[in-house]
């Protein structure tokens, strides 16, 4: 089996997560009791003080690229949410927590979109802004305010082309700007702390959300309504491929095809016949499909068209362990590339990036 096919490894989710003091609640696994000793209470108070973030001491020169999303949305006359709030307005109250003599934050409005409406052309615009901004004198980090629906895709796109030490941190919210319980300010504050944290230098792009700071690679939206909306499939140290030269993604078509019980092979053939240059299969379980669609996948892969196998399951690795026509092990032997920790959305972005830059797709899917 190819080393770039599916791999079978023990897996522990969530290790590629950086905690920020004051945002992640500490879990006490000790035995519960109805009373606490004064010593225990004092120790907890000390830990709380230790975890508090001294916002006034944070320094640096950040640029915030505002792109819209729920964080910038409020209800219109019909009650529908529309992204109308500027980046300047989003940052206004958050910035009051910091010392402006030490921390400079400049806001640039890149777009005003619901992220579900974003195209590769919009992604190219963000990538270009990130690339140009990081070349400016003194910039120590970038924040991107973004909708949550496609945040994981934009995050890995930035990470894939990011050839600089400055961290780029994406954030947004699950509740809109005009909601009394909006999570936007907390997430934006967390993004500022992540973008100015020296420990994040040279580690690529991040998502700051719901009290967690996640590396871009392997992150995904896990909940459509909870403030704790994002999680990661990464564990331990992330193998981040060598950054690619910035290249236009728009115009390179890669399709995602969902495999379900009884899915026909015509889905695969139709995608290629209509112009797809690569495919990501949203398989079942650890990366398996039925026999009919498997035959079509193998036919396409044998023609040299890149096919990546991912899964519809949130947690775990895509592993080539099953035989049979549509089993992961069989498909890996035929040249289908396992996505590892990546889910379909991020996998698609990497296939697009590889095709656009003339890179071997396997290089962007190192085994975790």
UniProtKB/TrEMBL annotation:
GO biological process: one example: asparagine metabolic process
UniProt xrefs under Pfam families: Asparaginase, Asparaginase_C
CDD domains: L-asparaginase_II
Biased composition (Low complexity): 31-41
Catalytic site: 70 (o-isoaspartyl threonine intermediate), 70
Record EC number: 3.5.1.1
Domain L-asparaginase N-terminal residue range list: 61-239
InterPro entries, per database record: AsnASE_II, Asp/glu_Ase-like_sf, Asparaginase/glutaminase-like, Asparaginase/glutaminase_AS1, Asparaginase_C, L-asparaginase_C, L-asparaginase_N, L-asparaginase_N_sf
Secretion signal, residue range per the UniProt entry: 1-25
Residue intervals of the Asparaginase/glutaminase C-terminal domain: 253-363
Protein name: asparaginase
